[in-house]
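Okay, is this right?
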Amino acid sequence: MYREPHDNSDTPLVFAKEESPLQEKGIFPADINGLWTILIVDDEEDVHMITRITLKGFSFQGRGVRLLSAYSGHDVKIILAKEKDIALVLLDVVMEEEDTGLKLVEYIRNELKNNSVRIVLRTGQPGKAPEHTVISEYDINDYKTKPEFTAQKLFTCVTACLRAYENLKTIERNREGLESIINSSSIVFENSSFAKFGHRILDQLHVILKLDRNLGADTAYFMGLPQGQILLMAGTGSYGDREGICLEEALPEHVLKEYARLASSGGEVFLADQYLGVFKFKEGFRSFLYLKSPVPFGDVETYLLRIYAHNISIGFDNIRLAREIINTQKEVILTLGEVVETRSQETAHHVTRVAEVCYCLAIHSGMDEPTAELLRLGSPMHDVGKIGVPEAILHKPGKLTPEEFEIMKQHAQTGYEILRKSNRSIMTTAAIVALQHHERWDGKGYPQGLKGKAIHMFGRIAAIADVFDALSHKRCYKDAWPLEKIMDLFKRESGFHFDPELMAIFLTNINEFVGINRRFPE
């Protein structure tokens, strides 16, 4: 989407000196598992001390911080080998070597393949690492000189980075859950035995929700033949050795009441830390999935459980299985795309319109239907990388500064890094679209500067769809354009920004694409 630079300023604040030094480095009074972990990397003890003073009592979303200290590149590597959930690294550039900090950025991103941790580079010697060069060439999330890194700016920076980290981890958790659901399908349905089917369902349920059997998770899968009793086919936890007993003997009274309410029609209900799913199959088969979790369900777990339960419910209907799995994938991708667009203050229908325009343009260009459908399913994730862009930049009503625009441009690469780890065709398609939808036909786009047909067909189609939707609708930084103005721009940019052949097809069928806007209004 088009954003242009604008100027901005900040008022410096002064750090106060602490009256007495901290006696213990790292852990504030709280459970370590509930804290955000921040790694301070600097060879000057004063920097560690002032950072700790400034962040004393800091919390984000009700969670405090756990501060770790490293004074050299060697220290950092030791800590990173032990700590797997560091949210933010406050990193000095010049330590034992003039470029120690830059080497650590490369180590974290390229060797450890850690693209989730937020990295803020701060230096007292900007001449050793010029901001423009560092921002352009290294995968960092912010750059500050130590004199300008005031208490307020540190607070703002840490808050923004933790928010971005949390969003990235949520996306990653959804992606992992989606892959587990997809992978579980072939495992769960490869057995014709009802007993094995039940065991496979519960095994995969533990994988998808990352349930720890040692913490007291109870799961049970019941099945009933037509006109027969509903019996326990598989169980874990307190149900692990009770196979064969009837549902009425196995479950507590309040669960049986919920089952009775849902028995005739099917359905599901969440009871804080419990899930009940009642499934009715063809020819009178019935099944019931029960889960009691040691902790309340979060939003991600609730959503993944619902999708997985739906897959269980269609396990006996092989004719519909393939289509339902694809629909499940589409729902997850659309939902994640909508989450990102909502954060960007764009309507949820943006991703739906882009997907439909991509599909129609692909079909008109001669692409086969299965490939066009892949593009339709993958394109809603085109801006998923914006989850890592600070909200101040995403929501800025005016033009962006050159530095802000450089940060905004990183979303294409960030989205690709999030999606590329999957070898599923939909996720692979989504990764290509995320990476290349801002490339230009003339080679002046980003992030790779690809030119002409070196840009994947998916990227060329998505570029037209994304810009068309952006210009057709109001955004925080512009009003909606009239159709005539959009068409004039597209004609001028054909062969420069856009693939001329695709643009000719688009303009020929413009009424169909305008119709998509009408079907999915703001």
In short: Residues 151-188 form the longest helix (38 residues). The two ends are 17 Å apart (CA to CA). Residues 7 and 401 are 6 Å apart (CA to CA).
